[in-house]
């Protein structure tokens, strides 16, 4: 399986290669520049081709059926008013040549019939009759007249500003007199192509078939990452991801890497160093770098790829009405996939005002200049956006899109036996999940060794995502074994505005943690309970300080799971609550707490710190603000040592907290004194604990009762 090379803006260079070319033909070269959206669509097309029948792409068929027609508009950018750089007849000949190349006729007989035909548009954007050819007088622009386009000439964007018809309805071609980068043409899937007039006038020319293939997302069969002027990167590789084009030596503009340009029988029978097989028909492939008369063929997989790419990216072209001879009915329509994975690229939107022009575009009711926006979602989150279109003639349309970012939520760890732990998660969309450790079983991972962090990799069925979610190992070996009832979730996702900037707790040792916004930290929930711990003494008072990110006021809550049941809902477990000072006083909130004598002692207990703009947030949900994201929850841990002298204050049963001075039942950390004159009874079936017992009164243990002592 080859890997597609990640570039999709194509520059076609015309050069005379006397050193390498034995024939007297000219040869052309191309350069790619990355386009994330078309790169992702190409990846998905290849994934589908490979998934239907293993890796045997040759058995694949296009998602399209029958011959499809592509409407063209050709814009001639004239440098002079006295004569034209190309005639209408020559443009029609170029279109005929494209049809020959893509229907395997004439000079291209013997190639794959790609079943694509090209036709000049019959309606312009206002639904008036057209020849499909426009001419723009640029003679008043001295830069264009003398330098052409690119480098010291005008930009391609400038040319498109002069003349461009709706790119979702027409395949735009610009013909110019000069390209200042020495190129014959420049093109890409999201643009069309711009081409030198003289390069498309030659009979059976390969420039336009090559460039329009790039418009259909097809890459070169070789890598184009060779470093100019050196042979250090002349490595074997692949540029198109297709299995019926061989690996070739890398080549790029200015490269000195070896490359075969000829289609002679000698060259075709010579050895390809990347495969140890004869070069064969790759020396006739339209997408290879060849002498200008050699490229006459497409492969079966190239055909399948281009047709599937058209269906995925240029689908609106297939229903474009501009080839009709009768005027179209005005319409307003937005084309978009109803669901879209946000982890890569942007959705392929198309807003069309047929027979009119776009007046207003909106996203969720807000006016925008383009639809090139998408929500920022954490792994496992989804969001619905509504897109609106209003045309100048008053027609409107709306489209709702569900965005999602593959991931799992509510990840909960649980300590097991035998030195392992497990984790469970919610996966309602049935994303594909793999784990760096342990075994994935349904919506859980089992048998993870204690102390080993887990990386979950999550993607959708098309391979979009591959998001990595790290799960920190619970403190199984440190005694904090009680599971947490909830893993916090964030209603509005990551935020550049809110988060826990600092947390201080003056136990022993003191906790002095610093962080940033939830966006900077990359997560709304951070579990530091295994890494940041402190010790406190029951009955003593301590100071807690929470800092909010930047100068934005935060609602602060601090919880301590005193009874170690994994919950933070009890009234006495919310130990601190308030609002940070905002732009004054360092944006902190500080307070003191007294550790109760009734808390579980000598066990790591979880401390949960919340900072968020919403007062509705709690220990499980970080609400945040719409459009600004959510703050953070961070967990820490503490262990409580009893500082209370445990003695009886009256007679009674051992398991009665009112019998004892510390208002709780003794534990194995207490030295217990039975006061003179008191009788303390250990009832039947009770197992009592103490570090030691000093009995100045009477201690009785019933027949099935038990007292366990831990003495130094």
From TrEMBL:
It holds the Pfam family Peptidase_M43. Residues 1-23 form the signal peptide. InterPro entries: GEVED, MetalloPept_cat_dom_sf, Peptidase_M43. Residues 195-311 form the Peptidase M43 pregnancy-associated plasma-A domain. SUPFAM superfamilies: Metalloproteases ('zincins'), catalytic domain. Keywords: Signal. Residues 556-638 form the GEVED domain. GO terms for molecular function: metallopeptidase activity. The keyword Translocase does not apply. The keyword Signal applies. This is Pregnancy-associated plasma protein-A.
